[in-house]
Here is the input.
Amino acid sequence: MSADFSIKPIGTPVAAPVVQLASAAANDTVATELPPSQSVTAADISTRSRNDLQTSREALSRQVVVDRDAASVVYQVVDRRTSLVVKQFPEEAMLRRRAYFRTLDLMNAERDPPAATDRRA
Here is the structure.
């Protein structure tokens, strides 16, 4: 079975009459002439933006940070010029959640000491 197909007309083509319906709005149109300051022109080729990966790679640095509160390793992509974090994994909300639950676990461990077990047989 072939994956492609074609549609072939059967019989002789019939010429359909061309009907043009004009609406009231189309009849009442006004020609628009805008001054040059309000008209749209094509952009200059020399001012187009470039997606140059080489320059973007040079502007970014990668860091690995250990978040002690969340007990997690954090991978960051930082803009060298502004020192702002561009991307981060795991996200800040996830780190806050991990730190919160880790604190709860540590508080529960301090409050409830492990049960003493008899190891003698």
User: Anything to note?
Assistant: Residues 55-111 form one domain. The CA atoms of residues 1 and 23 lie 49 Å apart.
